[in-house]
Design brief:
There is one protein chain. The protein is 43% helix and 17% strand. The chain has 316 residues and is an alpha/beta fold. The protein has one domain. The N and C termini lie far apart (50 Å).
């Protein structure tokens, strides 16, 4: 009952917000961000700490400026996303532009599938419009949530324009099915989440911090030998985005272990350094902040076979 209620409420709010002009939507967002930042102070400590460690050379006034702008963006993302279940595709096409979908055509023509990696950067939910511009069958990998109402809402949002939402545990089976049918796919994953403690296998430096990395995109691309692209989603101005496909690795099977993960990390690191505001700083990305502390907590040593790290960047 609780899940059905939350789903119904989300649909109602989505319908109501989709009827508003965006000017009114962003006015509501301004009010909400003021309330969230100054009154509720939602995760301000987490955001401030993340920013200060990630950008140690920036003065405090610069950190605070980024922090305030982030909360405005965060609320914009929230209200923009709530419109997506009902927004007209013609309106959404004005909000997000795919700059170079033609780079994927040669892979489609030779029936070659692709791994597409993105991050919690810009409004990634708007990229659900992608099937309108590419020829591949789009699969959006997701981790099921405990609240089935929220789960159902976001599945509906992501599948509305042609993506097929696939639970993480079922993606291998799904890829095998489409491969047998001769259907080239593009598998869409987010790579900047914090891995579960038991699944941490590789550490590197990311945003000036020792960081455990998710290996899913690399494992899947190497196993299937699918080229890896990154979907760079820049915020051009308020409410407007440009999504660009960037080739990361053409031949995954020829790479060294962790090479693709490292390339993705460096690429995203540079994007965030160029414009830090539209990244999700509220995430507790660095719950385990040091490689050495993690080893002690898990009773492992540096040479433990289940844990690796970038020896050029991390000095335990």
């Amino acid at each position: 009952m609780k899940d059905k209620f939350s789903y119904s409420i989300l649909l109602f709010i989505s319908k109501a917000f989709s009827l508003l002009p965006f000017g009114a939507l962003y006015l509501i967002s301004n009010i909400f961000s003021f309330f969230l930042y100054y009154i509720v102070r939602y995760r301000r400590g987490v955001v401030r700490k993340n920013l200060k460690i990630s950008f140690p050379k920036k003065e405090l006034f610069e950190i605070i400026r980024i922090e305030k702008e982030f909360y405005k963006y965060f609320c914009d993302y929230f209200f923009e996303t709530l419109t997506l279940v009902y927004i007209k595709p013609s309106i959404l096409q004005k909000k997000i532009k795919f700059t170079n979908p033609e780079v994927l055509d040669k892979y489609f023509e030779r029936k070659q599938s692709i791994i597409l990696v993105a991050a919690h950067y810009g409004n990634w939910e708007m990229t659900a419009l992608m099937p309108h511009f590419i020829k591949h069958k789009g699969l959006a990998v997701y981790k099921p949530q405990s609240n089935k109402g929220f789960d159902k809402f976001f599945i509906r949002l992501r599948q509305r324009f042609g993506l097929e939402a696939v639970p993480m545990a079922e993606i291998g089976k799904k890829l095998f099915k489409y491969s047998k049918q001769g259907i080239p796919t593009i598998t869409y994953l987010l790579s900047d989440q914090r891995p579960d403690r038991l699944n941490v296998r590789y550490w590197t430096m990311f945003l000036n911090q020792e960081t455990p990395m998710i290996l899913g995109p690399e494992k899947l691309s190497v196993k299937m030998d699918f080229p890896v692209f990154f979907l760079e989603n820049k915020r051009i101005s308020r409410g407007y985005y440009e999504a660009t496909f960037k080739l990361i690795e053409e031949s995954p099977k020829l790479t060294q272990e962790f090479e693709i993960t490292e390339k993705l990390s460096v690429y995203l690191n540079n994007i965030i350094n160029n414009d830090p505001i539209p990244w999700f700083w509220v995430h507790r990305r660095w719950k385990h902040r040091r490689f050495r502390d993690f080893l002690e907590m898990t009773h492992r040593t540096i040479d433990h076979p289940a844990v690796a790290y970038n020896k050029d960047l991390i000095k335990p």
